[in-house]
Specification:
The radius of gyration is 30 Å and the shape is globular. The chain has 9 helices and 47 strands. Helix 5 (about 430-470) runs antiparallel to helix 6 (about 480-490). The strands form 11 sheets. Strands 27, 30, 31, 33, 34, 39 and 40 form a 7-stranded antiparallel beta sheet that branches.
Length: about 775
């Protein structure tokens, strides 16, 4: 490696590449160096023979889950709320064996710093929907209930994740608290003013007496190091309690049952108002990535911690999303099977075999592809194109990963037209049964709507009769009119929440390079001898210049930006994504205020973890635990220099706008977000966040050896800004890399109803 690639910012590479290996600089007495030199940068996936770019086929964030509480007035403790929405597949191929997972966060923290380092506290984590099959570019409804704990109070957030086969992430990373998909905020009002349940203190987690921060980079331990986790629980009540604490230790993450290695539950007594610290001896797993889920149960309330760390010394690889590129199979039309794969901790792991096998319903092999070779820590892909010899809608794809004679992972995905899209099925008995079922359901809905209409007619007659007896003008309340409209349109039985959130995921970010302004020995043979001479007087005669020194690279980063909004009927105090409105009502469209949890970034492959990003135009990086990427040292003895690295993604804040259309008439304030309904009809509102730029920034701290003796030299200091990273190899000609976040929108479709006056004589 040339001297221009000596990395004074190797600590970024430390995180990005997870494993770093310094190269010897020579005898310290003659070649002392002031910066980390020639750090080992792992092979690019594209340099591996037989590999392809994973992201030409797999798109992180390509499935969206837009779901929110529907028709919500006051949510109170102990109440069950219903979430409704849509699951949307943006891929050109179907998604099979999918799952929707939900984390419920309580939106409170002790400080902004604690929020950025640790995220919001988790109070629930559950599977909302299993066995999701989505055709290409298709969507389907989702509806599920969640029981509000009896001691809940305050502001909450539902964050959504989507996986395939309980393994492969298509929306958010289920083992993180910061890389989520769509989010929906809601409030719980408690008139009893209860102190709340026993909860974990998320800000006081320790691993071997060192602070652990859930939303920052993963800590590393040696292969055989004993690890003890420390956690604290808080009892805010004035009574002593006994609670159950369950520890579940798994490989990689906590959603696939077969990854679970150990589970144990203990009872803990905690005094009134006490904060109690306790420990857990983490089982030694023979794996690179360990995931711990800790749950404290207090009545019907939970508090959850997710702890994840790395062990050195394990060369593991794993599959990341196998699939077929086109569905269904068409005889003679080229198709492709592919899979992404990566190592979990090492830059390159040799000696792997990944087999992709396509079979028909009878188990006959239709096509098979075998990749033999190395797997990189950076996400890499393998693929093979073929011509099907038959047209099929039902078949399976099996991905089998082996390392030598050891089977590491095997998964089979079933493609079935009855589950993906019945319209694609052959005209056989199965389709007949499906059509019959559909007809029966349609008939059931029709009967239901008819019955409700009859009931409504009776209610209307009774109301009119009662009003006539009291000499009240014959007027039907708007609520009954709205219900009649819902029944007539079939919405009462099939209403779904409208999209109120959107998650944007970056794609195609190039490798980006950081630079630090430092001193360099002028590159001539004689001058280099003087720069590295053992005699200080000779070194003083060397000629140096101040230049941009390359400072580590980031490969294939990914950024997530979340936006959300809600609509509230201020007259009825109902909030949701599909509220009922009448003429005269005041409604407010509310974009969710920007938060430090809206942006997260990660590097694909390896162990996949990340800090939050920031809504900021700043080029600087706040050097703390939430941005810390790692440490390094160079030189030796008295000439040792010590470095700490920090990185952040800053996105320029943007302000949303709103546009409205439809047949209803509205009177709105200057912002356009607060309106009064003045005429009946439809209301179509679109909230748009304009396009905005973002940047990757970095900084470093240095202590120890000061005087330059090497070719490259960096000043000593604390949190010295390196500015924005660049997308090319020449700092003078390469532009700062700009993350172009495109405009994003959410929509609300409402119907405003008016007052209906009926001639009572008609009913006499």
């Amino acid at each position: 490696m040339s001297s221009t690639l000596k990395s004074a910012f190797a600590f970024i590479s430390l995180f990005v590449f997870t494993l770093f290996v310094p190269v010897a600089f020579g005898a310290p007495e003659t070649t002392e160096t002031d910066v980390p030199g020639d750090w080992y940068l792992p092979q690019k996936a594209s340099s591996i023979e037989g590999s392809v770019n994973c992201f030409d086929y797999y798109t992180f964030g390509s499935v969206q889950v837009d779901a929110s509480p529907v028709m919500v007035s006051d949510i109170v403790p102990g109440k069950t709320i219903t979430f409704k929405g849509k699951i949307k597949n943006a891929n050109p191929y179907p998604i099979v064996d999918g799952q929707v997972h939900v984390k419920i966060f309580k939106r409170e923290q002790t400080s902004e710093s604690a929020l950025m380092q640790n995220g919001y506290p988790i109070i629930d984590f559950f599977l909302a929907k299993d066995a999701v099959f989505l055709a290409a570019q298709a969507d389907q409804d989702i509806m599920f209930d969640w029981s509000v704990p009896s001691t809940a109070e305050g502001e909450y957030q539902a964050a959504f994740y989507f996986t395939s086969a309980y393994r492969y992430n298509l929306l958010g990373l289920s083992f993180t608290d910061d890389i989520t998909g769509n989010k929906s905020n809601f409030s719980v009002i408690d008139d009893q003013d209860s102190a709340g349940p026993v909860v974990f203190d998320k800000n006081s987690i320790l691993l071997n007496e060192k602070e652990f921060h859930p939303t920052t980079f993963l800590p590393r331990f040696s292969r055989d190091e004993k690890i003890t986790a420390y956690a604290s629980i808080i009892n805010p009540e004035a009574v002593e309690k006994t609670v159950q604490v369950t520890w579940v230790t798994s490989r990689w993450d906590g959603i696939l049952a077969s990854y679970e290695q150990k589970k144990e539950t203990v009872s803990i007594q905690i005094k009134p108002g006490e904060t109690r610290k306790f420990s857990y001896e983490v089982p030694k797993l023979e794996t690179a990535v360990t995931f711990i889920q800790a749950i404290v149960q207090d009545g019907d309330a939970k508090s959850i911690l997710h702890i994840r760390f790395l062990r050195d010394g394990y060369e593991e690889v794993r599959i990341n999303f196998p699939s077929i590129l086109k569905y269904p199979l068409v005889q003679g039309e080229e198709n492709t099977i592919f899979s992404c794969v990566h190592s979990t901790s090492s830059p390159v792991v040799p000696g792997n075999t990944l087999t992709l096998t396509l079979k028909d319903e009878q188990g006959e092999v239709l096509h098979e592809y075998v990749y033999n070779g190395s797997v990189t820590g950076e996400m890499m892909g393998v693929k093979d194109s073929f011509l099907p010899n038959a047209s099929l809608t039902n078949f399976s794809l099996t991905a089998r990963l082996e390392q030598g004679a050891t089977l590491l992972e095997e998964v089979t995905l079933q493609y079935d037209c009855n589950q993906i899209d019945p319209a694609l099925c052959a005209k056989d008995e199965t389709v007949g049964e499906s059509a019959s079922t559909s007809f029966s359901m349609t008939r059931f809905l029709a009967i239901t709507v008819f019955t409700l209409a009859v009931v409504m007619a009776i209610i209307v007659l009774l109301v009119l009769k009662k009003n006539r007896m009291k000499n009240v003008p014959p007027r039907i309340p708007p609520a009954l009119i709205l219900m009649a409209m819902l029944i007539g349109s079939g919405l009462l039985s099939s209403q779904s929440a409208q999209a109120a959130s959107v998650s944007w995921f970056s794609s195609g970010i190039p490798d980006i390079q950081g630079y630090i302004w430092g001193e360099r020995c002028v590159n001539t043979p004689a001058n280099l001898v003087r720069c590295n001479h053992s005699d200080p007087d000779v070194r003083e005669q060397a000629t140096r210049e101040w230049v941009w020194i390359p400072a580590g690279a980031i490969f294939n980063p990914s950024v997530t930006v979340n936006y959300s909004a809600s609509v509230k009927n201020d007259t009825t105090n109902i909030t949701g994504d599909a509220v009922a409105v009448a003429v005269g009502d005041s409604i407010t469209f509310s974009p969710t205020a920007k938060s430090g949890t809206d942006i997260a970034w990660n590097v694909t492959g390896y162990s996949n973890d990340t800090p939050y990003g920031n809504w900021s135009d700043s080029t600087s990086v706040v050097c703390n635990a939430s941005t810390f990427t790692g440490s390094a040292q160079a030189g030796g003895g008295a000439a040792t220099a010590y470095y700490s690295g920090y990185a952040a993604v800053n996105v320029s804040p943007n302000s949303p706008t709103i546009t409205k259309s439809g047949t209803a008439t509205l009177s709105c304030d200057a912002s356009g977000f607060v309106c009064t309904v003045t005429g009946a009809g439809t209301i179509n509102a679109t909230i748009t966040w304009p396009a905005t730029p973002g940047y990757f920034n970095y900084a470093y701290s240095k202590s120890g050896y000061i005087n330059p003796r090497s070719a490259d030299y960096l000043p000593v200091g604390t949190c010295l800004s390196g500015g924005r990273m660049r997308s090319g190899g020449d700092p003078d000609s390469s532009p700062e890399y700009v993350l172009n976040v495109p405009a994003q929108s959410v929509n609300f479709n409402l119907t405003a109803v008016g007052t209906l006056t009926i001639n009572v004589q008609f009913f006499q």
